[in-house]
Amino acid sequence: SWWGAGPGLGLEQVGVRWTQLQALPGEPAQTNVHLKGRDLLTLQNYTAEEIKYLLWVASDLKRRIKHKGEYLPLLQGKSLAMIFEKRSTRTRLSTETGFALLGGHPCFLTTQDIHLGVNESLTDTARVLSGMTDAILARVYKQSDLDLLAKEASIPVINGLSDSYHPIQIVADYLTLQEHYGRLNGLTISWIGDGNNVLNSIMMSAAKLGMHLHVATPKSFEPDHRIIKIAEQYSKEYGTKLLLTTDPLEAASGANVLVTDTWISMGQEQEKIERLRAFQGYQITMQTAKAAASDWTFLHCLPRKPEEVEDRVFYSSRSLVFQEAENRKWTIMAVMVSLLTDYSPQLQKPTF
């Protein structure tokens, strides 16, 4: 089957094999996972089967819409409130174009349109939006704002990024790895960089899918100790390896996937000099890759700065960053469809 295809085979190269996975025409595949009406605030709240289901739906939508040219107005008549306290390229474009492609109407709201908790309480905003739209995607600073929105809203709330987590990015990363390697189980991810929201979301989910995780961060830039404790519990529960170190080469050793992110997130601009000094030696280079597995690949959620990863890695054939960026669209579409409809994929469930 396609999911057993060898390393390096992306969707385009093996798309011809997708027919082996399809259910009979007109017969959606069966699933016991039902996410309609749920929030997506953190992958900590999602089981292994629920994360796999989102990946399944994303693969299905990508196949049907991109490769077969089908029109699927699954969200016709539905609207989405998009609250953005932080600017974005990929989150905004993937959500707006994806929701519209499915027949829905996305409404983009900046701080000039809606200032959470300032001009109106979060409780009142949640209730107003619940009466006018079908879901909320919020890209905010404080995770607590998302939690309160979700508590007070009667519609699904999706985390488009917070200072604590970035779950929709990680679902896209996993889809990208699955397309490339044909599996997730058994892969080793090496994170080299800041202990930030993106890493937190990996730590809340990788072990559930059978992936090992090596993390290298400078001293004082480690993930939150509460996140580490939960990740250690997951690692023990799912029988995976979790390594925490300050040595980038130790983290890269034997890894299939090298991952980094910006060293200076939005809101941290005043720390730039201190951070650049602290992250000396953490740039991912071809020298770093020599310590990795022979089938190594590279991921970065973008935007990227040269000090984080050298051009020879970033623009190499091992870099999956632009496939990863495109998959933001298919995965957020899968999230919307899963939380707002009873859609069942037509592809048979992949082996993860």
TrEMBL record:
Sorted UniProt keywords: Amino-acid biosynthesis, Arginine biosynthesis, Mitochondrion, Transferase, Transit peptide, Urea cycle
Residues annotated as domain Aspartate/ornithine carbamoyltransferase carbamoyl-P binding: 38-179
Cellular compartment(s): Mitochondrion matrix
Presence of keyword Mitochondrion: yes
UniProt EC number: 2.1.3.3
GO cellular component terms, semicolon-separated: mitochondrial matrix
Domain Aspartate/ornithine carbamoyltransferase Asp/Orn-binding: 186-338
Class of this enzyme: transferase
UniProt entry tagged with the keyword Transferase: yes
Pathway: Nitrogen metabolism; urea cycle; L-citrulline from L-ornithine and carbamoyl phosphate: step 1/1
GO biological process, one term: L-arginine biosynthetic process via ornithine
Superkingdom of the organism of origin: Eukaryota
Coiled-coil region(s): none
GO molecular function: amino acid binding; ornithine carbamoyltransferase activity
InterPro entries: Asp/Orn_carbamoyltranf_P-bd, Asp/Orn_carbamoylTrfase, Asp/Orn_carbamoylTrfase_sf, Asp_carbamoyltransf_Asp/Orn-bd, Orn/put_carbamltrans
Subunit structure: Homotrimer.
Similarity comment text for this entry: Belongs to the aspartate/ornithine carbamoyltransferase superfamily. OTCase family.
NCBIfam families tied to this protein: orni_carb_tr, PRK00779.1
Protein name: ornithine carbamoyltransferase
Source species: Crocodylus porosus
Gene, per the UniProt record: OTC
